[in-house]
Design brief:
The protein is α/β, with parallel strands linked by helices and 429 residues long. It has two domains: 206 residues, no CATH class; 148 residues, Rossmann fold. It is 36% helix and 15% strand. It contains twelve helices and 14 strands. It has a six-stranded mixed beta sheet, covered by helices on one side. Strand 5 and strand 6 form a beta hairpin. Helix 1 crosses helix 4, helix 8 runs antiparallel to helix 9 and helix 10 packs parallel to helix 11. The radius of gyration is 28 Å and the shape is elongated.
Length: 429
């Protein structure tokens, strides 16, 4: 390792500089990760704890220059997307695979060259890690490019252990304080903890019996780092955009990074509150009120149509949860609700109508389980109902759509990766 390390450090530094020049947004993020070598039995490829770029020198030595750039960009984007803090209850292996797909597809869209074995399923393009996760089989054999240290699985993974982040930080501080004034970039400084240089590259001493381990982040530290990375992403994105070096693909992706997407319940509540008819009206009133037209508070009930996809992709529990949420919001905005169910045809026992003061309830058993067609719903509304203020469709968006969009707003609550040809799509995570 000692013979390879100087050559690898120079290679990484050159690749990082090229990233800054060619892709300033990604390069600026990569600069926040100091380069730190790791033992091969701890990190076979590369890894990040959101504080440093850990690498196996032998692995980096065998990468091409383009693949080295990819490795740096890959770790930086894991941090930018906050993957280290978003796993929650999910199974670690499936989550790691989902994160790699999400990162690699974004990098590929930006023109970064991916290694041949990098995970990048085109079917997942445009989805976040949380959306990809349920699409990854529980017994997946896919392998991630890097290692993803996680506090939750520390006991089950013998390769993850406590490194002593305070010792590393203290050593770096001492190294910086003892650096000769005006020392050239890359000058090596050595202290009791390891060797450091003023370019932010750290090489830990390897003593007999001194087993190296990767850091573990606690919940509080992970949250603090997530907020820090959001700030870094916003700063890097603004600088790249002002320089005209931030592509449209990043602009779309960063909308959810800098300003996280609201949960579907919050979005549904926002739509209904915007539609609520509680505003001042200047319509002419009764002649007995005089000749002046004075503003008055006009209120009325919304006409909502809610349709449930019963083709089998949406569970009964999810349908009940949606009905309960709709009932809670209905009372707040005074809405009359017509609920129907449809797979490839409308449910024979529907629709179900509810006044603003009535509780929205669904039958204990909903018919369905066939294919999925959305056309019957729009034909039924056109044929039998007055124009609704909003149609809410709870579905996986996998089916036959009408050829033309209707003249009323449609809100699709979508489970999975299906896309819709019109209306507004809200992702159900």
């Amino acid at each position: 390792m000692d013979k390879v390390l100087p050559r690898v450090l120079a290679k990484l530094a050159a690749a990082r500089t090229r990233l800054v020049l060619d892709r300033p947004f990604i390069g600026a993020l990569a600069l926040h990760l100091p380069l730190r070598p790791a033992d091969a039995d701890v990190c076979a490829t590369v890894a990040t704890d959101a504080q440093a770029f850990w690498f196996n020198p032998e692995f980096i030595d065998h990468l091409s220059f383009a693949e080295t750039q990819f490795a740096l960009a890959h770790e930086a984007m894991h941090c930018a997307l906050g993957h280290f803090a978003r796993r929650a209850h999910r199974v670690r292996r499936r989550w790691d695979v989902a994160c790699d797909h999400a990162v690699n597809l974004m990098l590929a869209d930006d023109g970064v060259v991916l290694p041949p074995d990098a995970l990048a399923n085109p079917a997942f393009r445009g989805l976040g890690a949380e959306e990809i996760y349920p699409l990854i089989p529980a017994d997946t054999l896919e392998q991630t490019f890097d290692r993803h240290p996680s506090a939750r699985d520390a006991g089950a993974d013998g390769l993850i252990g406590q490194l002593g982040e305070q010792r590393l930080a203290a050593a770096a501080q001492r190294a910086s304080a003892t650096a000769p004034a005006g020392s050239p970039s890359g000058a090596v400084i050595e202290d009791a903890e390891g060797t450091w240089n003023d370019a932010g590259i750290a090489a830990r001493k390897h003593r007999p019996g001194n087993r190296q381990q990767l850091p573990i982040l606690g919940e509080a530290a992970a949250f603090a780092l997530e907020q820090q990375w959001k700030s870094r992403v916003a700063t890097a994105a603004q600088a790249a955009r002002e320089a005209g070096r931030l592509g449209d693909s990043w602009l779309r992706a960063l909308e959810g990074i800098i300003e996280p997407t609201l949960p579907w319940r919050a979005l549904l509540a926002r739509h209904l509150s915007q539609l609520a008819r509680e505003d001042h009206s200047f319509a002419r009133g009764s002649r007995r009120e005089g000749a002046a037209i004075l503003p008055r508070l006009a209120t009325g009930s919304l006409r909502l149509v809610a349709v449930l996809d019963t083709s089998g992709s949406i569970t009964h529990e999810e349908l009940m949860e949606f009905a309960a949420e709709l009932d809670a919001l209905k009372g707040q905005v005074r809405a009359e609700v017509v609920v129907h169910a449809c797979d490839e045809r409308l449910a024979a026992d529907g629709p179900w109508r509810f006044a603003p003061w009535e509780q929205v309830t669904l039958p204990g058993r909903l018919s369905g389980g066939g294919g999925t067609r959305f056309t019957p719903v729009f034909e039924w509304i056109e044929r039998e109902l007055p124009r609704p203020d909003l149609l809410i469709y709870f579905t996986d968006a996998q089916g036959e759509f009408p050829a033309m969009s209707p003249d009323y707003p449609v809100l699709w609550l979508v489970k999975g990766r299906g896309q819709v040809p019109f209306g507004e799509r809200v992702q159900l995570n």
